[in-house]
Specification:
Layout (H helix, E strand, L loop, with lengths): L1 H23 L3 H32 L2 H21 L1 H39 L7 H18 L11 E3 L4 H14 L6 E5 L4 E8 L2 E9 H6 L2 H16 L2 H20 L5 H41 L2 H20 L2 H5 L11 H26 L11 H7 L16 H22 L3 H16 L7 H13 L3 H14 L4 H13 L4 H12 L4 H14 L3 H6 L1 H19 L7 E3 L4 H12 L4 E9 L9 E7 L7 H9 L5 E5 L7 H5 L5 E4 L14
């Protein structure tokens, strides 16, 4: 794709040189006709070139595509490690590719309009014929500009100001002054244990902002928080935030175009579909590849302003609170879902529970944290590897959470109180929903009577897990496995609980569940990988490498058959009940853009699930409002895919030949009734 764009762009540049030469030589008419034809040819090359490339990619298996992306990502990570500054330059160049493509389209539109007018004059036709075509190109230019325009605004998050918390801001000012960047007048707050910076461009102004997690404020003292500020503000001085902003903005725009392309009409599909798919993936993997090196550079700057011991302690405390919070979510840690109203001291209760737990568990947790190994795809290195990378191994396990500055500590308490109030206000409208699953699980457990059947027993076991009675849940799964040692669901649930308790025996149970049922591949491989990485089991990762590749292949094939339909697939008559079919028909009736619609069942090779295809033939130059259609179809409770027969014409024959497949057609646009399956 990039090569094709480079060729077209180079051709246009060369053509402009020839155009200027022809003008200088006095051949005005020939020059205009020449440059106009270049525009028309260039536009056709873009249209057909991107289509051919996309077809070539679509013929490649999903697994092969994933392998290619994996190899490219590994290569980019290696390049970023060797020369991070050079890699940043390449990222900036990549960011410009989207603008180059759009600019090239706009130039080709203008030249094509000139070309059409010139050809009309050359052929002696009425110049007025070219008027509508020129208008079309002008509207296309405006449309392309509109959908790729980036609108920015400051984040909609809680924040604190300088007037509210002067002591806190003096601490921040000390770091911004040393890093030599502009002081900030507000600090955003998040509901986690992270610290991050970002760049926002509003109009012609650039704003660098910092966001601090509420738990980080609770566990770090002044000097430790200051060292974290040095790290984050180094990203600003290194211009990481501006590069990340560009990549993020463009990725957001092009991913949005890619995901909603079917709703944007014929013109957008023809010109932007294939490029948006290519470009959004490129931006994503470049962003992944560069993040680790940016962190290394920021660490080095942080150490030039902060002592190694303080920074290492800050990293250790951050790891400890992360470890505690990720063991279970806050609701389960405190079990506050039995309370009728949300508590007004949520974060204080979480932090108090953490202090109580870390007092007795700190050594065990640190031992576990130090086991974690780094992988090639990590945004940050593991804790121990990170200390080695920044040459800061003088780390003491004697971690103290007290803060000696009482004035500063009072401001931190006030910030936490503010977040408590905001949390309670935000969650109040959703509190009934949050409690519902807990109360349902509690009711199921309270009213449980001895039952048989795998599905009911798994439901009961999961209800016990949801109310934190995992010992009883294990008893349920053990009993199921006594009756059926090959029950994949029980193996997986039990294995998951054991892994949560750092019991290696859970690994074999999850592996066996994945072997028995492909439905557990995605979650199972993720669970296995995370556990091995967290426990430093590099040797075990290597032992399971071939097995993991094979399971990934099966999962990729399973996803491919559910996401991509072909003429070789076996399509069967739909076996949904008549009421559901009638609801689908009435829903399709609401879209005047639909010419015909078919409903069939697709036979799956890698799954026993029922899977249905709603194949739609649109009227020319129209689009189906996919978002609205999907929202309504999701309410009907069956697994389906929408297939656009205008772009997948090869599927028309195999789908339309299925008995009673057609459920709607334009020639019968009357309110459907249940008297016939035919549209």
């Amino acid at each position: 794709m990039g090569i094709m764009i480079a060729i077209v762009l180079s051709s246009v540049v060369v053509s402009f040189v020839i155009f200027v030469v022809m003008l200088v030589s006095g051949n005005l008419a020939g020059a205009v006709i020449f440059i106009g034809i270049v525009g028309i040819v260039g536009l056709f090359v873009i249209l057909f070139g991107t289509t051919i490339i996309a077809k070539g990619i679509s013929k490649t298996s999903r697994l092969t595509q994933l392998d290619q992306l994996d190899r490219e990502l590994k290569s980019l990570i290696d390049k970023a490690e060797v020369n991070p500054k050079m890699f940043s330059c390449k990222m900036r160049t990549l960011c410009n590719l989207g603008n180059i493509y759009i600019s090239m389209l706009l130039v080709l539109f203008i030249l094509s309009a000139i070309g059409v007018t010139s050809i009309c004059i050359l052929l002696g036709k009425n110049v007025g014929i070219s008027g509508p075509i020129i208008v079309f190109f002008c509207l296309a230019t405006y449309y392309i500009f509109k959908i790729t325009n980036i609108q920015n605004k400051l984040p909609d998050m809680p924040f604190i100001s300088r007037a509210e918390f002067p002591v806190f801001f003096r601490l921040l000012d000390e770091t911004t002054d040393k890093i030599c960047i502009k002081r900030m007048n507000r600090v955003y707050l998040s509901q986690d244990a992270n610290c991050a910076v970002a760049n926002h461009k509003i109009g012609s102004e650039n704003y660098d902002i910092i966001c601090v997690g509420i738990y980080l404020l609770g566990v770090l003292n002044k000097s430790e928080l200051k060292s974290c500020f040095f790290h984050e503000l180094a990203h600003i001085s290194n211009k990481d935030t501006k590069i990340s902003k560009k990549v993020s903005d463009y990725a957001t725009v092009w991913e949005n175009i890619s995901s909603t392309i079917n709703e944007r009409g014929f013109l957008a599909q023809a010109l932007l579909r294939n490029f948006s798919l290519y470009y959004s993936v490129k931006l994503h993997i470049y962003r992944m590849a560069s993040s680790k090196q940016r962190e290394f550079l920021a660490d080095k700057i942080a150490l030039s302003y902060s002592s190694p011991q303080v920074y290492a302690t800050a990293l250790a405390k951050t790891e400890l609170i992360h470890y505690y919070l990720t063991k279970q979510d806050g609701f389960k840690l405190l079990e506050i879902r039995d309370e009728k109203t949300p508590p007004d001291n949520y974060y204080n209760r979480i932090l108090s529970a953490f202090y109580d737990a870390v007092h007795t568990q700190k050594d065990n947790w640190l031992s576990q944290i130090k086991k974690r190994i780094s992988t090639k795809y990590d945004y940050h290195l593991a804790f121990t590897d990170r200390l080695k990378a920044i040459k800061t191994e003088i780390f003491s396990d004697n971690i103290i959470f007290a803060e000696s500055d009482s004035v500063y500590q009072n401001e931190i308490r006030a910030i936490i109180r503010k977040m408590n109030v905001l949390w309670a206000q935000d969650i109040a409208p959703l509190w009934t929903t949050y409690r519902e699953a807990y109360l349902d699980s509690q009711a199921l457990v309270d009213n449980y009577s001895e039952i048989t059947g795998e599905a009911k027993q798994i439901e009961y076991g999961m209800a016990l897990e949801n109310i934190n009675k995992t010992d009883k849940a294990l008893c349920v799964y053990d009993k199921m496995l006594e009756e059926n040692p090959s029950c994949a669901s029980a193996l997986f649930r039990k294995g998951q609980i054991l892994l949560g308790r750092l019991d290696d025996n859970g690994l074999e149970l999850v592996i066996k569940a994945v072997e028995l049922d492909s439905a557990f591949i995605a979650n199972g491989l993720l669970l296995i990988r995370e556990y091995q990485v967290a426990n430093g089991m590099g040797k075990r990762i290597n032992e399971l490498e071939e097995w993991t590749i094979e399971k990934n292949r099966i999962h990729a094939e399973k996803q491919a058959e559910a996401s991509k339909n072909s003429v070789s697939d076996n399509y069967l008559p739909c076996d949904l009940d008549a009421e559901t079919i009638e609801k689908i028909r009435k829903l399709l009736y609401e879209f005047e853009s639909i010419k015909k619609a078919y409903l069939v069942k697709k036979e799956l090779r890698y799954s026993t699930d029922n899977y249905y295809i709603i194949a739609i033939q649109r009227k020319p130059f129209s689009s189906v409002f996919t978002t609205k259609l999907v929202i309504e179809l999701n309410k009907l409770g069956f697994v389906y895919a929408i297939e656009d027969l205008n772009t997948s014409k090869q599927l028309m024959k195999p789908i339309s030949r299925v008995e009673n497949a057609e459920i709607y057609s334009t020639h019968a646009r009357a309110i459907p009734t249940q008297t016939s399956r035919q549209g």
